[in-house]
User: Fold Competence protein ComEC from Acetobacterium fimetarium.
Amino acid sequence: MYKLVMTSGKSKKTILAPKGTRYDDANDYSIVVKATYENTSLLLTGDAEAVSERQTVSNGSDLTVTVLKVGYHGSRASTGDRFQDKVNHKVVVISVQRE
Assistant:
């Protein structure tokens, strides 16, 4: 299991994905990071899709967070049901472009 943890003062950052080195889709190279500062934590998923989400869930990390940033702008290719079931969050943020 690959996991990189960085701490600095009251903050902690844990890189949960990517775990592999070869993916068919470039989005699965997106870094998934859990960042914690005092009592607030965020799960930032970039453009990670289903493959990366499965790896994030399977690595046994605590996925309890205050804020979940939805993957790949809320597309069908990301933030699937299994991933949402495993991530215990209070707030969801979706990054989209206004046209």
About this structure: Residues 50-58 form the longest helix (9 residues). The chain has a mean pLDDT of 83. The CA atoms of residues 31 and 54 lie 14 Å apart. The two ends are 41 Å apart (CA to CA).
